[in-house]
Amino acid sequence: MSKTMSQGRKATAQRRDQANKLDRLQGVVRLLQEEHQTLRICGSVTQITPGYYGISGLEKHAHIGDCVELDVLRPFGRGPARAEVIRIDQGKVYAKPFSRHLDVGIGTRVYRMGPIQFCPDDSWKGRVIDALGRPIDGKGMLTPGRQSVLLENDPPSAMERGLISKPVRTGVRAIDLFTPLCVGQRIGVFAGSGVGKSTLLAMLARALEFDIVIVALVGERGREVREFISETLGDSLEHSIVVVATGDESAMMRRQAPKTAMALAEYFRDKGKSVLMIMDSATRFALASRDVAMASGEPAVARGFAPSVFSDLPHLLERAGPGPAPKDKDQPCGAITGIFAVLVDGDDHNDPVSDSIRGILDGHIVLDRSIADQGRYPAINLLTSVSRMANKAWAPNETSLIMKLKGMIARYEETRDLRLLGGYTKGSDPELDHAMELVPRIYDILCQTPFELGDTRTDPFRALSDALMAQEKKKG
Question: Is the residue at 7 inside a domain?
Fold first, then answer.
């Protein structure tokens, strides 16, 4: 009897030991699956086109936006080849590659990786990375952080966001006076090509009132990228992270770069930081999104743009702004102050992309080609530029002063042709005479070179008053 009980206890112990070993083995398998997200779910390429690959075997496992890895190496040894799922049909998945030149053939194996994510860290400040979060500055590998972030995040809930209340000075006199910014505001810089849009963004990137600056250079020339980092940012690169996707890269990389930059901005915002997010340009993001949408079979509805482009834009831009209000009132509320360049097609400020973005943002700064032709930089049109958060930055007496100045400038500009033709006699209209004397002096004060930033600690209205008085004394 005792022998039977002993054998039973021994068998029970053996089963328990086997169960523990099985649990540990399953835990190791789960850990490996989490680390290597391929999960060995494999498909194969069955269709190759210039815009996408058709893949069989993944249709039951993949989702729109998932990343897949192709069993080939990218040229120049830059890691494995990746693509993103853009469409799923019965029996086939369509994926658009991030690289233009891949040695892919019929039957090439493809592995599902899941949503694109990376692990940012504070040590990334001062680094330049590509759209997939890989370093391209030759300074070695990036130190991964402890927390992974997804590139496709939803904006904070409207009722959970903090309120915008704190004004911020940029050192650009025309902006600080006529279109002031607040922490957490999103504003667009609208301009045609060659009007000074990138130069103005470079001036704003050196603003001193932010904890970190995230710069997304989308579709830029390779030459301008190096100049922007070395000459424009200069020492400011130490508290900046630059995400680059040049114009020669694929549409997938140009579409991905703003999302990577926004995910980085959200990471620092959630840590209570004040983040300045600069994107040049949102239009090139829309163009890249159009390429992807057309490859997935969407129809063109507005000047060649697919419907999904006009849903991608608000989803990306709404991620900027004030973060969720912290539960502890003593903790700072992080915010993303967004400045987005908008390349106006043919100087038509009502083209579909420009019109859509203008309706999403909290203001717009318009650069005018005719002002640039006069040699006034930055070429900001003070009458058509609007900041919807100006009431948060101006005191009541400042609001009254700006409205009077804008009225004076409008009167000066609308009579320009009449005065040039000699149709106005000085003394006929005292208000116009006053505008003719004061407005050119204001224009001179607002002119700045790219490296001539004002003191952000000085009240811009006081600086304007002092400059006008100095001009009056010099004239006298």
Answer: no
Q: What is the mean pLDDT of residues 9-21?
A: 64
340 and 282 Cβ atoms separated by less than 8 Å: yes
Q: What is the pTM of this model?
A: 0.86
CB burial of residue 358 (10 Å; 0-12, 13-18, 19+): middle
Shared-domain flag, residues 343 and 356: yes
List alpha helices for 335-456, DSSP H: 352-360, 369-373, 390-393, 396-414, 416-420, 430-446
Provide the CB-side half-sphere exposure for 38 (13 A, CA): 12
Are residue 387 and residue 456 in the same domain, yes or no? no
| Residue-wise pLDDT tens digits, 251-275 | 999 999 999 999 999 999 999 999 9
How deeply is 418 buried, as exposed, middle or buried, from its count of CB atoms within 10 A (0-12, 13-18, 19+)?
exposed
Q: How confident is the model at residue 155 (pLDDT cuts 50, 70, 90)?
A: very high
3-class secondary structure, 435: helix
> Which domain-ending residue is among 391, 426, 453?
391
Token digits for 466? 């002092």
Residue 439 CA to its chain's centroid (Å): 35
